[in-house]
Amino acid sequence: MGAETFDVVVIGAGPVGEVAAERAAMGGLKVALVEHERFGGECSYWACIPSKALLRPGNLLAAAKRMPGVPIGDALDAEKVLARRDWFTGKGDDSGQVEWARGAGIEPVRGYGRISGEREVTLDDGRVFAARHAVIVCTGSVPRTPRIPGLDTIKPWGSREATSATEVPGRLGVLGGGVVGVEMAQAWARLGSQVDLVITGERPLPRLPEFAGDLVLDGLREAGVRVHVNSGLSEVFVVDGGTRLALTGGDEVVVDELLVATGRAPATSTIGLDVLGLPVDGPLQVDESGRVSAVEGGWLYAAGDVTGRALLTHQGKYAARVVGDSVAARARGEEISTEPWSRYSATADHHAVPQVVFTDPEVTSVGLTEARDGSADRVVDIDIAVAGSSLHADGYQGKARMVVDTERGVVLGVTFVGQDVAELLHSATIAVVGEVRLDRLWHAVPAFPTISEVWLRLLEAYGL
User: Fold this and answer.
1) Exposed, middle or buried, 127 (CB in 10 Å: 0-12/13-18/19+)?
2) Are 243 and 237 in contact (CB under 8 A)?
3) Structure confidence by residue, pLDDT tens digits, 372-400
4) Tens of pLDDT along 188-221?
5) Where are the domains of the chain?
6) Which residue of 31, 65, 120, 138 could cross-link 17, Cys pair, CB 3.0 to 4.6 Å?
7) How sure is the predictor about 73, in pLDDT bands with cuts at 50, 70 and 90?
8) Percent of the chain with pLDDT strictly greater than 70
């Protein structure tokens, strides 16, 4: 069977692969987009979209309870919440994504793509695609499963099962205090499940400032989650009526389902990297334009989780724009600049990665969360206590942190924790990316009465 030739072959049709393919097609290239599961990928069907659909009703109910005079009930209608989630995911129907690809001038291809040679991808049905200019790997990441005695005797939930379950489990165990663990623990608790969350430290979200983990811990407990801190899972047993979890320290919990949320790893093991002499069990190392550094000829690119740089959908799509534009420009014979903050450089991966944890309270962060070692950086911490937050909810609890480069007078990072702070994140991102000087930021007057008044309080606390 002869090879079919394209300018670019993209492996993986999640949001990252779709954007990379679209940008390359916009640059005038003939693009094949290969996907073995659903076009739209993890985010659309098993991650970002369904998880937020599960979280939002509970957050809204909690917010309503903080507002006197609002007529509310005490519980969610789980059936309607799950139905709304299914509407957003289309119950797994990706036909709309396939039609979008065709409309964008991209050839959607169903099959499992594997690199089989230089500029060559072979599908599981034997078809061979040759790429004139580039192969772009956008295969995302897969869950990491720890080695725990007895875990192989049950069918634990991963993030996919946690976001796509059709019934509320009576008792849910959650292992892991990262983003997936805390979001799903709170979502299912508010839908009526008795949730036991097992974390290794004193608080969840260990990569964020301690006040973030403390406030989220309070929110989890308020939602009815039983949090086992400084703990772990030592063994799993199948028992009558459920699964018994033996925790480190001697405690035991019986659950109906167990969600293992202990991190993710780049999905590189089955895409043919061995053919190129590359490791198959780690991230693809790329330069700022997304080109895989270890492959001669400059034809292999990667973007998103598979690079291990920033495992977030929006950051992967950002990198995909860089990759698609870089491939198209180089195909036209252009010399491109990968200097920081140029169009062909994914500089933000290193300096300004925005993220949101959609629990109640929400946690948002961009840039640095701590001062750099040996630097003159200054950390400013304050409560979110402004007229806007007081009107927003009775008893509003929130914290804000700003990390400042005192030598240049610019913001290096911002963290907000509190109800509905996610919408504050982009202003922080602009401040960090734009390196807006504090003396100029002082003139960005926040509207009254809004929670964004916290910006004024941060600057005042700094001394302006």
Assistant:
1) middle
2) yes
3) 999 999 999 999 999 999 999 999 999 99
4) 999 999 999 999 999 999 999 999 999 999 999 9
5) 4-40+94-143+265-348, 151-262, 361-462
6) 138
7) confident
8) 100
- Whether the domain at 4-40+94-143+265-348 and the domain at 361-462 fall into the same CATH topology: no
The CATH architecture annotation of domain 151-262 reads: 3-Layer(bba) Sandwich (3.50)
Pick the CATH number of 361-462 from 3.40.50.2300, 3.40.50.970, 3.30.565.10, 3.30.390.30: 3.30.390.30
Residue 74 in this model has a pLDDT that exceeds 90: no
